[in-house]
């Protein structure tokens, strides 16, 4: 049996504890799913050829979500409450990679996420593109579940 890597365009994003809205799971782009080990560099006394590098903790960049501007959105309301009203309510977010039958193939569970930035593309009368909104989320960490 041959193995084919999954496609990167069949996914959905769910912000848990928000009302169900089929449009709120549709994003065109997800960025920032990575982790790295933060390290501390220490020069060793008397040894000038190299430095010691010690592991500290895992680091996670902020998640960046992009989609066409959605006017009636629970995600938008949550973002507005967090950024404008300063009523920060962290929520768990699931980024779900889907297979050809629309079943979960892999799920990244992001813990305690909240919006830190929202923006839209520039409005330009000389362009015929749709307005894209970008939402940036801070999260503490993520875990991964593989369904297969």
UniProtKB/TrEMBL annotation:
Signal peptide: none
Alphabetized Pfam families for the sequence: Phage_T4_gp19
NCBIfam families: conserved hypothetical phage tail region protein
Name the UniProt record assigns to this protein: Glycerol acyltransferase
